[in-house]
């Protein structure tokens, strides 16, 4: 019972953290996520941009691999999955 409540509390906190991030569609429409099947450039730091890079590259059946930082944008290559 206690484990169930703890798990429920942790899940609630995780979802609350997600509530602060706009959906991927909103971030794409605002120019925060730009790219194609080969590369994606995302506004923000390397760690914050990683989930969006993974989602973007997965749309093309590829994996995200860190490339470099370009100003305030993080750039990932979308590479073929091994």
Write up this protein:
By secondary structure, the chain is of the alpha+beta class. It has one domain. It contains 3 helices and 4 strands, in the order H-H-E-E-H-E-E. The protein has helices spanning 2-19, 24-29, 46-58, and strands spanning 33-35, 39-43, 62-70, 73-80. Strands 1-2-4-3 form a 4-stranded antiparallel sheet. The chain is globular and about 30 Å long. It starts with a helix and ends with a strand.
Can you lay out the helices and strands and say which pair or pack?
Elements: H1 2-19, H2 24-29, E1 33-35, E2 39-43, H3 46-58, E3 62-70, E4 73-80
Would you summarize the structure shown here?
The protein is of the alpha+beta class. Helix content is 45%, strand content 30%.
Give the count of helical stretches: 3
Q: Report the uncertain regions.
A: 4-17
Strand pairing plus helix content: what structural class? alpha+beta
For the record, the count of structural domains works out to 1
The proportion of residues in beta strands is 25-35%
Mean pLDDT: 79
Helix content: 40-55%
Distance between the termini: 42 Å
Strand order, main sheet: write it out: 1-2-4-3
Judging from the principal axes of the Cα atoms, what is the shape? globular
What characterizes the major β-sheet?
Answer: 4 strands, antiparallel
Order of helices and strands: HHEEHEE
């Amino acid at each position: 019972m206690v484990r169930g409540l703890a798990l429920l509390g942790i899940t609630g906190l995780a979802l609350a953290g997600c509530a602060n991030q706009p959906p991927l569609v909103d971030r794409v429409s605002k120019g925060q996520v730009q790219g194609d099947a080969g590369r994606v450039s995302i506004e923000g730091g390397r760690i914050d941009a990683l989930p969006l890079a993974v989602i973007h590259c997965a749309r093309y059946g590829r994996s995200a691999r860190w490339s470099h930082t370009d100003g305030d944008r993080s750039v990932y290559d979308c590479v073929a999955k091994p």
